[in-house]
Amino acid sequence: MDNKSQGSGGIRGGFGNLFGGGAPEYSKSELASVPLTGASSLSPYLNVDPRYLVQDTDEFILPTGASKTRGRFELAFFTIGGSCMTGATVGALNGLRMGLKETRDIAWSKPRNVQIINMVTRQGASWANSLGSVALLYSVFGVAIEKARGAEDDINTVAAGTLTGMLFKSGSGLKGAARGGLVGLVLSGAYALYNNWDHITGSSTSSRLY
């Protein structure tokens, strides 16, 4: 046994001397006890400080001059599509309610089912068309006002909402357009207030402190 160990040690020493000198051998426990400067919590698998892998904020590769938030033009597609789907869902539920109410005196049969289905499809298409038209007008006005002013703020939101209400109800005359504009102003103003609520409450709290 001793001869074998000495022989293997001699072979390792010979190869070590051949390739530039024999390096001292350390056990795993000795290597683990060696302190590493600059890395307090190293991963035993990666041998990398995990603090460098954790980021506080999201990082994206953006084109030159692009903003991190979506503009009105990008959001227009989502707004129009979401409004159409919401209108179709609400209209279908309303049509189902109306169909069941109008056919409650009729026994369950094929004519009653057909009448209910017709009511559901008719109401769903009507609501989807209405909400989709409102979303389209709002998006067009918002993009146009943003391009004209060269700024993106809550003024664009309120102005687009007011003009949308006025144009959507313009077929009802001046009074209808005025009512539609007032409704659009109230809704868009409430939406702008909701988006800035944290900023408003934070400003009021800081003003009380000082």
Characterize this entry briefly:
By secondary structure, this protein is mainly α.
Write structural notes for this entry.
- By secondary structure, the protein is mostly helical.
- Helices cover 69% and strands 0% of the residues.
- The chain contains 7 helices and no strands.
- The relative contact order is 0.06.
- Residues 1-20 and 205-210 have low confidence and may be disordered.
Q: Give the SSE string.
A: HHHHHHH
Q: Strand percentage, roughly?
A: under 5%
DSSP summary: helix tally? 7
Main β-sheet, in a few words? none
Globally, the shape reads flat
DSSP summary, beta strand count: 0
Roughly what is the average pLDDT, rounded to an integer?
Answer: 77
Q: Pick out the low-confidence regions.
A: 1-20, 205-210
Gyration radius over CA: 35 Å
Instruction: Provide the structure class.
Output: mainly alpha
CA-CA gap between termini: 84 Å
Percent of residues in helices: 55-70%
What labels would you give this structure?
mainly alpha; 69% helix; disordered C terminus
Topology at a glance:
Elements: H1 2-18, H2 28-32, H3 72-102, H4 110-149, H5 154-168, H6 173-195, H7 197-209
Helix pairs in contact: 3-4, 4-5, 5-6
